[in-house]
Structures are given as structure tokens and as C-alpha cells.
Amino acid sequence: MTRNSITQNLLPLLSIIVSIALLVPNASADWLEEGDQFYFQTSLYTVHYDPQDEHNNKQELINVEFQKASQWLGGLALFKNSFGQSSQFAYLGYNWTIPYTREFMYFKFVGGLMHGYDGQYKDKIPLNQAGIAPAVLPSIGVKYKRVHSEIALFGAAGAMWTIGFNFPISGEKE
């Protein structure tokens, strides 16, 4: 990862995190609940089902997610797509705890808008109009205390293994 790509990926994410950090303490506590949390995630390993020489398997994922105690969530991911282009994915989703796993395993389904497949690669994802395409990502995860690891499927193209950490938000109403 070059210094320029780190700066290009981190600056938008840091500005979002700082904005959220400034807004949360001042926001009405009506929408915060005990158990709400922020979740930060990065990629460890990516595999393409039909590998090509042009495929990038190092996504450099930086993901921030706000998870409600009700299991609803929303997030923003910054990453290098399968062709090395800087990309973004803004999404909403839901977490389901897998029964009989004592909340150790879960299934997550998110959907949103993806941007960044441009030029000769614009047709590599379906419905990519004006550089923005709808996308859905199912994943299965395990968690132990504040550490989570997931395997996310990105369509028929491949899968990504991630690791992340959650940070609880004090949301008790006074």
C-alpha cells in the first residue's frame, strides 16, 4: 500500500469518523440504546472463484459500521476493487444470531450502493449506471467479546475474510 493510497482511503473515512464522534454526544439520546456500537473492520484475505491475472486480492478494506442493539446496521466501506480501483460501498443491513450458538455465530445481510468500477471495468458489476451500482453482500461471522471475523461473499466473483473490533456506545437514557 503506497502512502498516496493510504491518504486517499483514510482521509474520507477519518472525516466521517470525526463527524460521527462530534455528533453522537450532542445527539438526542432518543435514538441511542444500550448495546449500540461502532464496528471497524479490515480485510485479511480475498479469493476469486475464477481467478484472472488482472484480479487484485488485496482489497485494503477500511470499513466503519454503526450497529444498533436491535441488530439493524449501516456502514461505509472504502476498498480497492477486484481491479485495483479505489471504491466505496454505502449500505444498510441486518444481523441475525444463529440459534444455539450462544451468540457466537451470526449471519449478516447488507445492501447498498457501490461506486468505483470505472473505465474498462465498469461492466464487471451488474447495473453499474453512472459508476454507481446496487450491491448485496451476505456474510457469516463469529465473534468473541469485541473481536469479530466474517466471510463475506461478493456475488459470483469471490469471497473475503475480514477481522474487526466493536466499540460500544454508552446510550443509556437519563
Instruction: For the record, give the distance between the C-alpha atoms at the N and C termini, rounded to a whole number.
Output: 46 Å
The outline comes out as: globular
Q: CATH topology, which one?
A: Porin
Number of distinct beta strands: 8
Q: What is the overall pLDDT average? A: 85
- Count of separate structural domains: 1
Query: Percentage of helical residues?
Result: 10-25%
Strand content is over 45%
Q: Give me the side-by-side strand order of the main sheet.
A: 1-2-3-4-5-6-7-8
Question: What does the largest sheet look like?
Answer: 8 strands, antiparallel, barrel
Protein name: Sn-glycerol-3-phosphate transporter
List the helices and strands and how they pair.
Blueprint: H1 3-26, E1 37-48, E2 62-67, E3 72-80, E4 86-97, E5 105-115, E6 132-144, E7 147-154, E8 158-168
Antiparallel strand pairs: 1-2, 1-8, 2-3, 3-4, 4-5, 5-6, 6-7, 7-8
Commentary on this structure:
This protein is mainly beta. The chain has a single domain, classed as Beta Barrel (Porin), CATH 2.40.160. It is built from one helix and eight strands; from the N terminus they run H-E-E-E-E-E-E-E-E. An eight-stranded antiparallel barrel has the order 1-2-3-4-5-6-7-8. The chain is globular and about 45 Å long. It comes from Alkalimarinus sediminis. This is Sn-glycerol-3-phosphate transporter.
Give a quick summary of the entry:
It comes from Alkalimarinus sediminis. This protein is mostly beta strands and 174 residues long.
